[in-house]
Amino acid sequence: MCSLNFFLYTLCIRHSYLLSRLMDTNIIPLVKNKCRDITDINNYRAIALCNVETKILEKIILSKLVPYSDHDKYQFGFKWQHSTMLCAGIVKQSIEYYISRGSHVFASLLTSLRPSTR
């Protein structure tokens, strides 16, 4: 069975083609806060559930792409054992850089609070 899966994954990657069963996804709504109004649509978030074969293929592709990608160095949130303090430092340095060269700096900030803290 493993060799058949390996053959399938190899074909998918080489030919840039996915079988329709590998693209099947179930979208499930989850309640964010059970203590709030469960009839409120804003109290839900969606998750996508894929089949096991698709998750394995995703892991294979990710393992091949990560060594060539620098996406991780610009990610601040949802990163294991990292805070957003580095992000705040980079924003501060960027602002100081442009101000020291006589430029104006405009910013648009978005704050996202967890549903339980509202």
- Structure classification: alpha+beta
Total number of β-strand segments? 2
* Shape field: flat
**Averaged pLDDT, please?**
78
Helix residue percentage: 25-40%
Taking Cα atoms only, what radius of gyration do you get, to the nearest Å? 21 Å
Distance between the termini: 50 Å
Number of structural domains = 1
Largest sheet: 2 strands, antiparallel
Order of helices and strands: HEEHH
Q: Given the structure, what is the number of helices?
A: 3
Percent range for β-strand residues: 5-15%
Strand order of the largest sheet: 1-2
Low-pLDDT regions: none
What does this molecule look like?
There is one protein chain. 37% of the residues lie in helices and 12% in strands. It is flat. By secondary structure, the chain is α+β, with helices and mostly antiparallel strands. The chain has helices spanning 2-15, 52-65, 85-100, and strands at 25-31, 44-50. The mean pLDDT is 78. It has one domain. It has a two-stranded antiparallel sheet with strand order 1-2. It has 3 helices and 2 strands.
List the helices and strands and how they pair.
Blueprint: H1 2-15, E1 25-31, E2 44-50, H2 52-65, H3 85-100
Antiparallel strand pairs: 1-2
Keywords:
118 residues, 3 helices, two-stranded antiparallel ribbon, alpha+beta, 37% helix
Short description:
The protein is α+β, with helices and mostly antiparallel strands and 118 residues long. It is 37% helix and 12% strand.
